[in-house]
Known about the structure:
This protein is mostly beta strands. The chain is built from eight helices and 39 strands.
Amino acid sequence: MKLTKILSMTAVVALGTVALHAADAPKLSADEMKKATQIYFDRCAGCHGMLRKGALGPWIRPESHKDKKGATHGTLALGFETLKSIIFNGTPGGMPGWGKSGELTKEETELMAKYVMNTPPQPPEKTMADLKKSWKVLIPVDKRPTKPETTRNWKNYFSVILRDIGKIAIVDGDKKEIVSVVPSGFATHIVRNSKDGRYVYVIGRDGKASMIDLWMKEPKNVAEIRVCNDARSIDTSKYEGYEGKYAVVGCYWPPSIVTLDGKTLEPLKQVATASYTYDEGVFTREARVASIVASHFKPEWIINIKETGQVWLYNYTDVKNPTIKMIEAERFLHDGGWDSSKRYFLVAANARNIVSVVDAKEGKLVANIPSQGTKPHPGRGANVNSSKFGPVWLTGHIGSNDIVAIGTDPEGHKDNAWKVVKKIKLPGEGGGNLFIKTHPKSKYIFADRPVNPDRKLQTQIYVIDKDTLEVAKTLPIPEKYLKSADPKVKMRGPVHFEFNADGTEVWTSIWGNKKTPSAILVYDANTLKLKKAIEDPRLITPTGKFNVTNTMGDIY
Length: 556
Ligand code: DHE
């Protein structure tokens, strides 16, 4: 038998009596392949994986595969017409309508339908030499300020991600004006601050990490490095004696943890996360790193490995020879945050509708809690000291309209601990919530819903009263902030919330497109009045906003 024949037999699928074959997939020219690979990386890999074995989105390889619920997936069996329609229109399960929203042309959605019927190309690896080559110290440590050069209240700065232009706007929270705009990686995802707040650590989707010094009169990047090809998380060491000593990046591809020097971003250690799924023992090359938090109890990072359902407690004391405790939790681990005592980390396992709880003090799993909704998505969640239930942590869901409160105080409120004590229904059909946020000084919790298909539901702020734990009010975004220069592209928003340092204001973004600057809306966190719309031609696609005081102190 010819070698090509043997190789292609690995991708044969049976559909009734018809045998489908990866070699039967629509052919693409080299240019089409290059373009589709880039679009796939930019738009699809986050949810479906580089190897297309699925995570938040389903398996989309040519060959068929049965998921745990018994549903069969496989792009050859689905066929070009169905795929084209799904990519153009989206699905009620949360797949965006890339054609309908104007983000891809009709031709591009057709190209992507053909592309996913072909076997995925092997994604690239990265060596330590690659990392070192990309590493730049732009301003050496001894040339940096020794005290803040600015008279501004820099602890009330907000780092605002300008997603589609790969930049960070540093915004003065007192004056509500941009102090500087700093380049970052492609489609920057999140920002975290050093424990003292001074440095802003930024991670791009392309794996480029950078650090900005807020003590400069005009904050700038002081170091940068490309640690991988695809990443979503970054943090620093926060344990006593190690404050700011190390930074860590969690990579989607190559699936790995990369430790860096906290002051210069010099690469120190790569650790691959490929491993076995905790429950079925299936070897998973694409075991991606989702959220990371820095423990306050030990010199450790709590690192969530998405596909294998393991939480790794990564001890950085001996940085070149780290020790890792692997905790079995649930799949697929995604985002999460601390309870108010910062002892327990609560993380969404979105494929199983579970919130896993890890005790950072004892170093063990405390509970896997059914979240009573579909696809929990907390961001970092919201903490409330409820008069009825004691301390609770809340999460929303992408796939259903449930915001749930989970008891987090096993000592003071044992009966409520580690279960859903209250379910809050957002009005209207469907989920679409991405982020919720509160502050100890605010009476309210704020929730968005940017991926709900209904325009009205998508463009309101949901305000939950902390006392009653009910939706107290919905605040529609004024129409003038939702206007786009391109009529084919709809402005979304609100998306993501952040409080100012003293908890009196809550900020949210209008998520536009590359062609249209969009506003950041500042509300009074207690009267709920729109205080100010920050409008500036440099504000292009603002998504996440991170206040220095709240981010350095893990306040949410
Ligand atoms: Fe995010 C947090 C991954 C889509 C904006 N996002 C996170 C975290 C992960 C993640 C793992 C937690 C990091 C941490 O705490 O250490 N996000 C992913 C994806 O894989 C996904 C689903 C698809 C993708 O390709 O990226 C995805 N995320 C989005 C968006 O579409 C958002 C709204 C805009 C964007 O940037 O693409 C978005 N994600 C955010 C934001 C946070 C975040 C603003 C930080 C929230 C916080 O308050 O900490």
